[in-house]
Write a structure and sequence with these properties.
Structural class: mainly beta
Shape: rod-shaped
Largest sheet: 6 strands, antiparallel, barrel
Strand order of the largest sheet: 12-13-14-17-16-15
Strand content: 35-45%
Radius of gyration: 38 Å
CATH architecture of the largest domain: Beta Barrel
Number of domains: 2
Number of helices: 7
Distance between the termini: 105 Å
CATH topology of the largest domain: Thrombin, subunit H
Oligomer: single chain
């Protein structure tokens, strides 16, 4: 037993007595991370020590192609001579160290990463083409806009708290200028409504819908529009949106109304008034305040139902404002 233990302790000159080799690594450009057989050893220029030689060195640097080089190795001839002194057990211990570095200095030149070939810019699509000037909503779209005939009256505070998140700001671009308008949801799956003139000449890919919580969405599809009646119906990417029901009963002169829109980029401002008159061309005259940026906003009755799309006003100093009767989308 004593003889066996002594033989094991002296079994390998390489394993027990061999020294670690110091390997020098550099690269162009400098500052590349170096991995020896997958294990990080430093950043160029650097050195590392190893008794058991590594077969590969990999170099990685941001902005450059990764590169792997292979080390130069050769056999340790004297391992087999150890059998004369240590026996077969010594050779078994030495086998993992049968190779050694033939060279102790390694260098790699890295190449810049090739720039990806830019994808061709798709041709931008006008949200509202010049022709035809009308595109009616089909039954599949209209069936998702459920009409309401509520008898529960609400005050301004309740209406704003309930529907503030259903009204949004719209930013459109013609590739040169950015314009701001308003809009609102009429279904939970993202069907929105605004004025035709808010989108005229704009590009669908550049249109941004901004909700009251700051989240932003893009328009997925234009579903209907009318240049004559100044409305547009579209689908926003996403689901689970708060929305305002559409009136089934219509309105009468003298009815209380509330406008929620973003005049002069004052996000989701609420104002109140009454219906002042019915005008030709599906126009609702009212004295609820609106201004630039209000176009496309929501005109809501006292039951919390949409009756119109806020559109514009007379600049004569009088409070003469107009909205498009929401029922025109069914025409």
């Amino acid at each position: 037993m004593i003889l066996l233990a002594g033989s094991f302790m002296l079994s390998s000159c390489v394993t027990l007595l061999g020294r670690k080799k110091e390997i020098y690594v550099d690269s162009y450009p400098k500052g590349a991370s170096v991995y020896a057989d997958g294990s990080y050893v430093g950043t160029t220029p650097c050195t590392f020590k190893s008794k058991k030689p590594k077969s590969s060195l990999s170099f990685k640097k941001d902005g450059y192609e990764s590169k792997t080089i292979y080390t130069s190795l050769k056999h340790r001839g004297h391992i087999w001579w150890n059998m004369l002194f240590t026996g077969f057990l010594g050779v078994l211990v030495d086998i993992p160290y049968i190779d050694k570095y033939a060279e102790t200095s390694y260098y790699a030149s890295l190449q810049l990463q090739s720039k990806p070939t830019p994808k061709p810019t798709p041709e931008l699509s006008l949200v509202v083409p010049e022709a035809p000037s009308e595109m009616r909503a089909d039954y599949a779209v209209l069936s998702k806009i459920v009409p309401s005939n509520s008898s529960m009256e609400m005050d301004a505070t309740t209406i704003f708290e309930k529907y503030n998140s259903a009204v949004f700001m719209i930013y459109t671009s013609d590739n040169y200028n950015v314009s701001q308008g308003s809009g609102f949801f009429v279904s939970s799956d993202g069907i929105g409504i605004s004025n035709y003139h808010v989108f005229k000449g704009a590009y669908i890919e550049k249109t941004i819908i901004k909700l009251s919580d700051g989240s932003k969405y893009q328009i997925q599809e234009v579903l209907a529009y009318s240049k004559k009646y100044d409305y547009i119906v579209f689908k926003v990417q996403g689901s689970g949106f708060n929305h305002i029901p559409v009136t089934k009963s219509g309105y009468k002169v003298g009815n209380k109304v509330y406008a929620i829109s973003s005049p002069e980029e004052l996000e989701n401002t609420i104002s109140s008034g009454i219906v002042s008159g019915k005008r030709s061309g599906y126009l609702i005259q009212h004295d609820a305040y609106i201004d630039h940026g209000s176009s496309g906003g929501a005109l809501i009755n006292r039951y919390g139902e949409i009756i119109g799309i806020t559109s514009g006003g007379k600049k004569s100093g009088a409070n003469l404002n107009f909205s498009i009767d929401i029922r025109v989308i069914y025409k």
